[in-house]
């Protein structure tokens, strides 16, 4: 392995490929041609002297050497970004990029913040919590809102509030007389739920599994809004978060909330941001406002 000449670009390419495990998707994310990525990875593996990826059928997976390099590459690239940030004069980003599991979490606050900072724009990326954390580590967003727990030392977090999964149905459907429902009863109802990649869905799946229950998932969607849209066309119950429905109920007088009798359906949300790159003053102010809003809202009246 003597004379290794790997460079930062190769490490960046490698890290994206190690996350996507697909050359086509990684090349699209990097905005480069797939042959360019293949050549760079071949050069990197030749310079290191051992394979980083193993081809299994049509898929690739990381070798032990690849796993080691992935861990070190993340640290190296984070440190490079932190060093550049420390050496540059402190400047405010023209646009603050935020990753979150639903735009409803920030909609009530952005208008107020824009009044205070009229020249700052915002980019909201609706993601799963896992995608938000990945984008944070890759410096694709300034901060995010994600579900706890978070066990990555490269990410700091500040508690916001505890959300919960609720059941929603139409007031004219066959389940409109229900006021409460148990997990066991939910297995007898067609359910409209989020895709398994979402943290809140993973919590739901684990609870069913722990109680040896088999739910009837009628439709799986990629947003809370799609859950409600599907409910207007189908007979069943949609499982969404209370925080989302609270922002939507004014426009959906035809819907009814059914309380789910399961304490495990509650999950904490937090602001997440890089541990090694201090946020800009405007970003800090925005995070302070978000935390104050939710902590005040969660206080008993």
Automatic annotation (TrEMBL):
Keyword Transcription: yes
Pfam entry (one): LysR_substrate
Molecular function as annotated in GO: DNA binding; DNA-binding transcription factor activity
Assigned keywords, A-Z: DNA-binding, Transcription, Transcription regulation
InterPro entries recorded: LysR_HTH_N (IPR000847), LysR_subst-bd (IPR005119), WH-like_DNA-bd_sf (IPR036388), WH_DNA-bd_sf (IPR036390)
Gene Ontology CC terms, in alphabetical order: protein-DNA complex
Domain of life: Bacteria
Residue ranges constituting the HTH lysR-type domain according to the UniProt record: 6-63
PANTHER family: HTH-TYPE TRANSCRIPTIONAL REGULATOR CYNR, TRANSCRIPTIONAL DUAL REGULATOR HCAR-RELATED
Assigned protein family: Belongs to the LysR transcriptional regulatory family.
Protein name: LysR substrate binding domain protein
Native source organism of the sequence: Pediococcus acidilactici DSM 20284
């Amino acid at each position: 392995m003597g004379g290794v000449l790997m460079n930062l670009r190769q490490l960046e390419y490698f890290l994206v490929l190690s996350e996507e495990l697909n050359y086509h998707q990684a090349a699209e994310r990097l905005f480069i041609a797939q042959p360019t990525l293949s050549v760079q990875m071949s050069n990197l593996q030749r310079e290191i002297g051992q394979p980083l990826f193993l081809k299994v059928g049509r898929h690739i997976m990381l070798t032990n050497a690849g796993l080691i390099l992935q861990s070190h590459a993340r640290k190296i690239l984070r440190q490079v970004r932190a060093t550049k940030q420390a050496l540059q004069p402190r400047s405010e980003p023209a646009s603050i990029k935020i990753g979150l599991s639903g735009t409803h979490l920030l909609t009530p606050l952005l208008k107020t913040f824009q009044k205070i900072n009229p020249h700052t724009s915002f980019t909201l990326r609706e993601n799963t919590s896992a995608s938000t954390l990945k984008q944070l580590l890759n410096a694709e967003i300034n901060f995010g809102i994600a579900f706890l727990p978070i066990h990555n030392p490269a990410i700091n977090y500040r508690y916001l509030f505890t959300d919960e999964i609720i059941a929603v149905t139409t007031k004219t459907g066959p389940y409109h007389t229900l006021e409460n429902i148990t997990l066991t009863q939910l297995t007898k109802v067609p359910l409209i739920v989020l895709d398994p990649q979402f943290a809140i869905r993973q919590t739901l799946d684990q609870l069913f599994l722990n109680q040896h229950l088999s739910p009837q998932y009628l439709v799986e969607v990629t947003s809370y809004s799609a859950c409600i849209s599907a409910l207007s066309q189908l007979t069943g119950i949609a499982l969404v978060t209370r925080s989302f429905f609270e922002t939507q109920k004014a426009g959906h007088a035809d819907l009814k909330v059914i309380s789910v009798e399961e304490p495990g359906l509650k999950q904490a949300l937090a602001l997440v941001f890089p541990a090694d790159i201090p946020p800009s003053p405007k970003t800090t102010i925005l995070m302070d406002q978000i935390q104050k809003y939710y902590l005040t809202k969660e206080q008993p009246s």
